[in-house]
Fold these 4 entries.
Entry 1:
Amino acid sequence: AKLLDFGLATQSGPAPLAEALSEMTVEHSKLAAAGMIVGTFQYMAPEQLEGKEADARTDIFAFGEVLYEMVTGKPAFSGKSRASLIAAILTSEPPPITQLQPLTPVTLDRVVKKCLAKDPDERWQSAHDVKLELMRIMQRLAEGAPARRKSRGAWIATGVATAVAIAAIA
């Protein structure tokens, strides 16, 4: 089990970006450091990385990254240094979830892709909207699931249900 926190954070004063970009190691790649850009780089939205105003849509981006990782087992964005990780978040798109996990519903892939939109105006505008869409997906999966043993689709439905619970809390 992993405990992940992707809440908004603010900082006081300028962050020493050059220092923050050069100090990444594999074991420290997901840890926030004091006095630097505040947050966990792996889950930061483009606007946070660019020093722009953060709002609820910033958390929706982070939620999309967490959901992507829950379903695929891989982070949405990666890099060998903080600089390359930031570049990936700002400029690249992660591989579609259905490419990595072919049994994943295409609708879940679309939800996550919208969460990960680079422009906050193109993301879901509230966690409530994401929750409603995830609940629709979960309902469709439940209606089509066989009564036998838990299939891969049922496991994905369980993951979606967990995501809905997280979204509701957010």
Entry 2:
Amino acid sequence: IRGVVELLETEVEERKIQLTIDLPSFEEACVLADKVRLRQVFLNLISNAIKYNRTGGTVNINCSQETEAIVKIEVSDTGMGIPQERLNELFEPFNRLDAEWTGIEGTGIGLALAQKLVHLMGGTIGVKTKEGEGSCFSVTLPKGQPPKGLIPAKDHQVNERINNSNTLGLLYI
């Protein structure tokens, strides 16, 4: 998550987005997943939350333990939201839900790819949305064990607000 946020820092600053990362303890935030593919999933979800947001909007990244065996990571925004009647088209490859007329760049394959990658890693991806208010994409993945010998920077709950600065929160995956 940290690496993805660092990559998107310029977009966050340009759009004046308030980005918040809420994380549980280190042990609760570990998932069993392919690091490279999971990074691609979060790059897509966080990038979309920024580019389909309103200027000065917010993006919140939240991680919680859904069950003893499942970790849930949510990426929510205060953007335009998605019409309920179009949700069934959301994960179709090359379907941008008419966003091509908004001037926002994209190919329409990001969410389809993200869904496929999450499923291959034994997880699920879903969305809750309200038109005109924003969307919340959630990824659930099997809980993993922290790597032996890796010591977290903080052993308590992390709740950091990124306000167009270089201070970033951490999610160990």
Entry 3:
Amino acid sequence: GLAKLNRAGAPVPEWFGVPTEFFSAHVSKSSISGVLSTTLSELSELDLNEPASLKVVQAGAQKIKDAIIAEEPPPELRVAIEADLPKLGDGPFAVRSSMVGEDSKEHSFAGQLDSFLFQTGVDEVVDSIKRCWASAFGDRSIAYHLRANLPLDAIRVGVVTQRMIDGEVSGVMFTANPTNGHREQTLLTAAWGQGEGIVSGICNTDEIVWGHHGEEVSYRIVDKDLKLIRDPDSGRGTIEVDVVQDERKVRCLDESTVDLICAKGLEVANNFGSFQDIEWTVEKGKLYF
């Protein structure tokens, strides 16, 4: 998805992908593969309609995740990260999990895997990659696989490492309006802070409708009482904070910024040849998809 956005000329922060071969090499180690095969075999026999089954899934998932995190990653991974991380700048970095097959036409693993924001240095990035791998075997992911009749032994995870953007306002854009089916309208949602607050549902969002003729059709302001920001104490990860009173019930996007985001989104959708839903953020007046 990011590669397609790059080719479409979208404003994407610098990134590189960690191929699934590293994941496969890690989980094939004997200390992990034994736990993996035994536990997944037991879980595949479960009937998820039985209430007790979910507790068994939770316990099995934790056992697998603990095994993956406890083992040192392949040494080649550190070599690759040491070589490629400086190409993204000084940091911080976002380490983002991506299940192979995620958001395909048939299946979506959105929200089931972990990502790690505002990571600094090689050690933190390598550890976060390993934790991304482990999250593929979380209880929600395993339960989804079982309900969808997807093979548990075919799980593969790629990881994106990307320059972290400290967004002041973020949101999601749909280049066709999903609320009314209008294909000549873009629906934009926006709130203060990091995009994680929007996609996780923590933050209330303003809702803007923008016509493809190039003008804002409507802007609905909500009470934006919470936002997610970079943890000011550790500098790593995010925390939830209250929005100051003066910013709660006002627009978080001016009209020119709405035009900029929506016009660029429409350009990307036209390049793709299909309607898109796009996560975006703005840092110091600069737009990123």
Entry 4:
Amino acid sequence: VDVWTFSASADQQVQFDLINASASGVAFSLRGPNGPFGFTNLLNDSELVNLPSDGSYTLTARGTGGAYDIAYAFRLVETVQTDLPLGTNFIGQFAGSGHAQVFRITLTNSGPLRITLNNGGSGNRAELYVARGAPPTRGAFEFESSSGLGGNRELLIPSAPVGTLYVLVYGDYIPTPGQFS
């Protein structure tokens, strides 16, 4: 069993990325300040995970089914949260499939809100997710624009509330890395 610990803040978003393993039979688990959380006995990459509270987190790797002496490499990727004032055009880069970025938008008035994602990469498939209070994931969100093929997405929220909205831009399949706005 290998063990790593790190400290994190509530609502920080991470994703486990298994880069390689010399053999099958290694499983990863994430525990938070209040016990098991995120994933248990994960054999591959994780989805995006919102950490629920401030505190110390533990990531463990262990052999399964009698497996041992397995060499492996992984990274725990933190999704960056970028403040985006209304009416601002942000230029970013999709580095590859699974690339995620979270934007924080503060609304001082309620009303309609349109979010547009443009990515002209050939064959790319991008997704948009929105939530209040905490960053959305692909499985937990209030609004989304993710169906169908394509790198361009538009999302209209007819009556966006006053407060903080989080927008997840997710590059589901990015065979043509490049710029998005």
